[in-house]
C-alpha cells in the first residue's frame, strides 16, 4: 500500500543518505548544478514542447512531489556525510519514475552525481539502495535504466551492478534538445535474491 510507510522515506548506507528533494534545497541544489553544468548538459533531459526552456527548481520539485503523491515517482537527492559539515551535503539526484503497478510492477531510474565525487562508488551505491527499496518495500519486479551510448560514466554504473543490456532504443528520449538513442538496461527481483546493495558491497570488498 502506498502511504506514509512508503513515501516519504530516507535510505542510508555508510555516509550516503538518500532523502526526498525539498523546496528548501533550492540554494544548495542550484549551486551544485551550476558547478556541474558542462558535465551534465550533454545528458540533460529536455521537453520538445517547451522550446528549450527548462523548468525552475520550484516547478521541478512541485511536479516531482505531485508524481510521488500519485504513486508514480520517488524523487531523491543523494547526500553524503562529510567531516566538518553539520549535515549531509547534496552530491547528486536520483529519481525513480514511471512506476507501473498491476501486471507490470516496474519502474525507470535516472540519476546524476557531482563530477567532483564521480568514480567513488556513489552512483552505484545509490542505485543499489533504491533498487532494493523498490523490490522489497514496494514489491516492484523490474527496474530499468536507459542510458545514452556515449555516456561512459553511467554505462560503468550499470555494468558494475550487473544490469542486463537489453539493446538499443533509437531516438528514445529527448535529451539536450534532440531525440537521442538509448541503451536499455534492466534487473528483476529474482536476479538479486540477496539484495543488490549486498552484492555490490561484497564485490567492492
From TrEMBL:
Family matches, as InterPro entries = Acyl_CoA_acyltransferase, GNAT_dom, N-acetyltransferase
Tell me where in this chain the N-acetyltransferase domain is found. Answer: 16-190
Keywords, sorted A to Z? Acyltransferase, Transferase
Q: Where is the signal peptide?
A: none
Which Pfam families does the record associate with it?
A: Acetyltransf_3
* A Gene Ontology molecular function term of the record: protein-N-terminal-alanine acetyltransferase activity
What protein family does this chain belong to? Belongs to the acetyltransferase family. RimJ subfamily.
What's the protein called, per UniProt? RimJ/RimL family protein N-acetyltransferase
Q: What is the organism field in this record?
A: Arthrobacter livingstonensis
